[in-house]
């Protein structure tokens, strides 16, 4: 697929966030969303992504289920959506929009403490 304007890609991410179910979106706090072109080596290492595999997004932070009383006055956690691999995989703009929404939902799941294994079990991977 041809390159999508960065502003349009950002709009796709914002739309995906806005389409999250209210019960999840309303519970999100101290979380930023950002867009980067490609995953960093430390993202690949932290997520256990094998060499040569593709990472479409990443949650950088402490899941809600692991936060204790010590978790306060901290910088926001971040969900990053990687533009380069998503554009490379997408067939067209509609397909890209759906892939972006899937990545946003997946990473928000990690924010709420849902593991990859559990996401697979519930058909959300």
Please explain how this structure is put together.
The chain is globular. Strands 1-3-2 form a 3-stranded mixed β-sheet. By secondary structure, the chain is of the alpha+beta class. It has helices spanning 6-18, 22-25, 41-47, 83-89, 93-111, 116-121; strands at residues 31-36, 57-60, 77-82. It has one domain (6-120): Zincin-like, CATH 3.30.2010.20.
Task: Provide a compact summary of the structure.
By secondary structure, the protein is α+β, with helices and mostly antiparallel strands. It has helices at 6-18, 22-25, 41-47, 83-89, 93-111, 116-121, and strands at residues 31-36, 57-60, 77-82.
Q: What labels would you give this structure?
A:
Zincin-like, alpha+beta, single chain
- What series of H and E elements makes up the topology? HHEHEEHHH
- Gross geometry: globular
Strand order of the largest sheet: 1-3-2
SS field, number of helical segments: 6
Report the uncertain regions.
none
Strand proportion, as a percent range, falls in: 5-15%
Structural class: alpha+beta
Distance between the termini: 23 Å
What number of domains?
1
Q: Summarize the amount of helix as a percent range.
A: 40-55%
Q: Assign the CATH class.
A: Alpha Beta
- Overall average residue pLDDT: 92
CATH architecture label name: 2-Layer Sandwich
Strand tally = 3
Radius of gyration: 15 Å
CATH fold type? Zincin-like
> Major sheet, described briefly?
3 strands, mixed
List the helices and strands and how they pair.
Elements: H1 6-18, H2 22-25, E1 31-36, H3 41-47, E2 57-60, E3 77-82, H4 83-89, H5 93-111, H6 116-121
Parallel strand pairs: 1-3
Antiparallel strand pairs: 2-3
Helix pairs in contact: 1-5
């Amino acid at each position: 697929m041809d390159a999508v304007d960065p502003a349009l890609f950002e709009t796709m991410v914002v739309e995906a966030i806005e389409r999250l179910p209210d019960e999840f979106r309303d519970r999100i706090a101290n979380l930023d969303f950002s867009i980067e072109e490609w995953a960093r080596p430390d993202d690949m290492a932290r997520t256990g992504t094998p060499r040569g595999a593709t990472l479409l997004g990443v949650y950088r932070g402490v899941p809600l289920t692991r936060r204790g009383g010590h978790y306060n006055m901290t910088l926001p956690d971040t969900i990053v959506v990687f533009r380069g691999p998503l554009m490379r995989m997408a067939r067209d703009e509609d397909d890209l929009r759906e892939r972006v929404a899937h990545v946003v939902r997946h990473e928000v799941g990690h924010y709420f403490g849902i593991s990859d294994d559990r996401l697979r079990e519930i058909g959300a991977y």
